[in-house]
Write a structure and sequence with these properties.
alpha+beta; SMI1/KNR4 family protein; 5-stranded antiparallel beta sheet; 30% helix
Length: 225
């Protein structure tokens, strides 16, 4: 039986895109653990750590839970606004599908079909906080490995050269790793957790960089108003 998180994503997925098996496995794990919340509008949001334990652990100095990210499928209606457009364009909507919120200020992660027909996981910064606009991972396993590193959020590329809780961080909060999620990623996909994000994110480009080495950033700039 298909879980609600996967059902909702498939309902908004453009015809040319597909849900990677690893993302479907993640959604199944989230729902098996009960790490989700259903809202009055019918949408379900999934988490990597139980929200009640996260809130209980949160102080000015530290918190549990590793990386905070929200998985839901109700964020695609605003695509045109991210590109500064007045209406949706097929050349954008047919190749892009938001599936998660990466930052409290509104940054998002999306599935993107590149020019070669390969599915990438990309970051769409909010513009009001994060301006990260790039390919986060070439495949879903690497995206899950990125989440497992344990940054507060994955929308702040200035943190990417360093491990979580490094001395140069100005967050002032110690983020304890989500060990349960780390172990699930390692065991399920027979992989390792990198020390820093730059081991996965090849070109952490930012909005406005038309000459970036990052293919998504160039594509986004080309289609933005």
């Amino acid at each position: 039986m298909m879980g609600k998180l996967l059902e909702q994503l498939k309902a908004v997925l453009p015809e040319k895109l597909w849900v990677p098996d690893e993302l479907a496995q993640l959604y199944q794990w989230i729902e098996q653990q009960g790490y989700y919340e259903d809202y009055d509008d019918g949408h379900r949001t999934g988490f990597l750590y139980p929200t009640d334990k996260l809130e209980e652990s949160w102080t000015d100095e530290e918190r549990q839970g590793g990386t905070i990210i929200l998985f839901n499928a109700n964020r695609n209606d605003g695509l045109r606004y991210w590109f500064g457009l007045e209406e949706d364009k097929p050349e954008i909507c047919q190749r892009l599908c938001v599936f998660a919120r990466t930052g409290a200020e509104g940054s998002e992660a999306a599935l993107w079909l590149d020019d070669d027909g390969k599915l990438k996981i990309v970051h769409m910064g909010s513009g009001s906080g994060s301006i990260l606009s790039c390919i986060l991972a070439d495949n879903m396993v690497d995206f899950l490995r990125l989440l497992a590193i344990g940054y507060d959020e994955i929308c702040w590329n200035e943190e990417f050269p360093y491990p979580p809780n490094h001395a140069q961080s100005d967050s002032g909060m110690h983020i304890h790793p989500n060990v349960e999620f780390q172990q699930w990623v390692q065991k399920t996909f027979n992989t390792t957790i990198p020390a820093t994000a730059l081991e996965i994110v090849k070109h952490p480009a930012e909005m406005g960089d038309r000459d970036s080495e990052d293919a998504f950033c160039r594509w986004a700039e080309k289609h933005s108003n």
